[in-house]
## 1
Amino acid sequence: MGKALEFTDGNFEAEVLNSDKPVLVDFWAEWCGPCRMIGPVVEEMAGEYEGKAKIGKVNVDNNPDISVKYGIRSIPALLIFKNGEVVDQIVGAVPKPHLTKQLDAQLG
């Protein structure tokens, strides 16, 4: 069973920007209620997309550099990266089908 990866200021370039697969990144924080709602969905998707896409989380409190670089102002914010570029952005706790649809669009 796949588990959401932990992306940090230190490994973001290697894990996300240089990934050969699309990457869904969940920007979140412990104190954010909606983030806790979407967290289990992100974990589920990590298992379902294993081998097809990378799925992970960035704790904005612990990794301010990435959060600032991508202009994260409200969380949860989910960014989809492909070939090192942001190709889609979802802000707020959205239903799982919405997330899977956005990610599926990048898998082709």
Note: Helices lie at 12-17, 33-48, 64-69, 96-104.
## 2
Amino acid sequence: MVQFLKHFIINEFDYLYLCGVLKQYKKPRDKITKLLNSGAIIRIKKGVYILGEAYRKGPVCKEVLANMIYGPSYISLEYALSFYGMISERVETITSITNKRKKVFSTPSGIFKYHYLNPKKYPVGITQLQIDSFRYILIASKEKALSDMLERETAFENMNDLAIYLHQNLRIHEEHIRTLDIKALDNIEKSYKKKNVTLFSNYIKELR
């Protein structure tokens, strides 16, 4: 078993990857069942798996799983803000945005929530980050993650209300706000056409 599992170079993989590793077997489905029953691999959802704890190459990357479980999607909202260190609270639920129906998956690796965003707004501001030599993730830029948060809130009356939300509700320090890319935010604002995001774009410009 240990020798066989050396073929796995990543902890997170889909059914096609698994079948590729098992291609020498006449009945790969039977082998998959045995691997599942032994705990060598764990099913996260249909078609998505991770290695069992005893066989992993380091920790499971929940960000990679978030992209695999339901797509198209990208990591955003509270989890992305925590990932970037913009909020101090530890976020356990992995939050993502999709242009399909909203979904929630409770898995052996945690809870994954997917929130809907209009397909016209969806593409702008998504970043591909390299995790290691083999794995990449799709995640909102800092500007898009905050815009996604604001897009879901009731419209603020003015910049003062917006500032209270950013600094008191989300507890984001002003130095993090000042590092945001104005041009990137302008592109998002043009796509979202949402009062809160427009206020946010103007607020950043005033800080400069």
Note: The beta strands are 12-14, 41-45, 48-51, 73-75, 94-98, 103-107, 110-116, 126-130, 136-140.
## 3
Amino acid sequence: MHMPVLQKEVLEYLDPKPNENFIDCTAGEGGHALAALEKNGPRGKVLGIEIDLELYKKLKEDCLKWQFKQRLIPVNDSYTNLKEIVGREKFKNISGILFDLGMSSWHLEESKRGFSFQQNEPLDMRYSPQSPLTAKKILNYYSASEIERILKEYGEEQFAQSIAKNIVEIRKFKPIQTTPQLVEIIKRAVPSWYQHRKIHFATKTFQALRIAVNDELNNLKNVLPQALKILKPEGRLVVISFHSLEDRIVKNFFRENSKENLIKILTKKPIKPTVEEIKINPRSRSAKLRASLKL
């Protein structure tokens, strides 16, 4: 079992107690769900939502080995349909909801969908292979100005214009299909000092494309009000984000609802991983956890 990000902190803020029900909106490989199931027995349940069919099948298979398997309800769907899923599953008395918005290790290492610039893979980047938009489609058919907008808005990429221009130039001669092709295009479009920083020069472009393909920011904006609505009073909402765009959405949502006296913010500042956790799992370094209590 992989170690989920900020697991100790998630348990502290979700605070699962015996017989309480929880929702893990991004179940992935089930790490956080399993941690909650260890605390909410003997009758508490966890509804685990996973959009990726392959990952959902893996979760179902793996949970057969758990002693708590009968208390996990896995669902293959998008968390944007949260209210509908809860109604369909007749899942009630919800004491806590978790969103871990990071990509799973499985997506980077095993999905073969081009999430990582360190692998040679087709540029797909979809969490749900049923959705029509791929990174390949954006790179080969969108205008230079639209690609630039995506890189600026979703990647906060300072060389968005030159990268977009280079993409449009290169695709005139050959379609852009694989991760190494895209990395090379980015490399040619940015100055040499940018190529030798701590953060890889392709990171922001890959992030931006992934967010655009999966409409991640709009999905988050749409689901947070649903989550708050279905939580019971004193229920807890915990969100782990991995970049400033997501964190800003969560921060603003909490602030607005706190002003309306609908929630109490439990984290004045976002909780970050310890130095020890970052050493064990370097991918956790950008994680930020915010939590609130429904009034």
Note: The two ends are 35 Å apart (CA to CA).
